[in-house]
Amino acid sequence: MGHKSGSKTFFEIITPYITYLAKRLISLIPVLFIITIVIYTLINLMPGDPIMAMLDPEKTTAMTIEERNQYVETMRAFMGYDKGIVARYFIWLRDTFFEGEFGYSIRFNKPVNLIIGDYIARSFKVNIIGFILAFLISIPIGITAAVKKNKLYDKFITVVTIVGISIPSFFLALLLILLFVVYLRLFPFSGMSDPKGVIPDWKYLVLPVTVIVLTSLASLVRYVRAAMIEVLKADYIRTARAKGLTEKIVIYRHAFQNALIPVVTLIGMYIPLLFGGSIVVEKIFAYPGMGYLLNEAYGYKDRAILQTALLFFGMLTLLGNIFIDIGYMVVDPRIREGKVK
């Protein structure tokens, strides 16, 4: 027997997804190119000579002027600074995107690609845990606040979220340190592990993750609440209730699925913002992630690390946009059916 009319093969179903994502990925290529130009220009406008910053005083003091000048020129050629600024840009593009080489760190005196992987992994651990917890907590709170609009629960959540948005992350981090480190002595103040192995590693994650969760939670709750309130006014929600469906099915199966469309946008926007915000958190808790590395690199004027770190944050922004596109395909039937180009 042949296929029923209207039935689709797997290829026919997946084609709109692939086409939609391919168009979005292609459109991001010129954006990425512009990002690299901006990053490279800003870093090269920084004052100071990176080669002079690399000089070891103990090593160069005993040198004659000629030997010192020769050493500087050798290092300049090694770092590629003997070439023009435009040539260095294209060399950087080639090395970064085609050879996986991100330059040489004057802070650590080794190639950046041997350093940065561990810092990215640590940042992902803290930020992804914090973001997932914030998202899982914000959904039920935001939905309940929308359902109980203008009631005591909703008013309480509104006040709490306003306070949460108003508190800077560094101030919240200091409050947690004062309470849980100084007074209660429940968690370590900084670092990521105990050299003696006495304190479990997970305790070093609690305070940074808590700051990320609390600073993200207020905005997410308000956004979920606002999206749900808007959806609950729709005609199809009244129709679903008139059909006798239970309130739980109306809220979670019909209303929340449509409320997810604007929430997906917020999540995609939050991905780069979370890692950007972790610069403050990682600095305060001395947690060696990308935020901490970026702060250190700026202090040492380490251009190779700065370029790589900023490119990382730029790529996160693009990944956030891809996440939004994928999320739209999941929650918006029109895109799943290929009706939205």
From TrEMBL:
- Residues crossing the lipid bilayer are 21-43, 128-147, 159-184, 204-224, 259-285, 305-331
Record's superkingdom? Bacteria
Q: Which GO terms describe its cellular component?
A: plasma membrane
Which Pfam families does the record cross-reference, listed alphabetically?
BPD_transp_1, BPD_transp_1_N
Which Gene3D superfamilies does the record cross-reference, listed alphabetically? MetI-like
Q: Which UniProt keywords apply?
A: Cell membrane, Membrane, Transmembrane, Transmembrane helix, Transport
Is the keyword Magnesium in the record? no
**Cellular compartment(s):** Cell membrane
State the InterPro entries in the record.
BPD_transp_1_N, MetI-like, MetI-like_sf
UniProt cross-references to CDD domains, sorted A to Z = TM_PBP2
Q: Which PROSITE patterns match?
A: ABC_TM1
What is the membrane topology noted in the UniProt record heading this document? Answer: Multi-pass membrane protein
Any one Gene Ontology BP term: transmembrane transport
Domain called ABC transmembrane type-1: residue spans: 120-324
Q: Which family does it belong to?
A: Belongs to the binding-protein-dependent transport system permease family.
List the protein's name: ABC transporter permease
What species is given as this protein's source? Alkaliphilus serpentinus
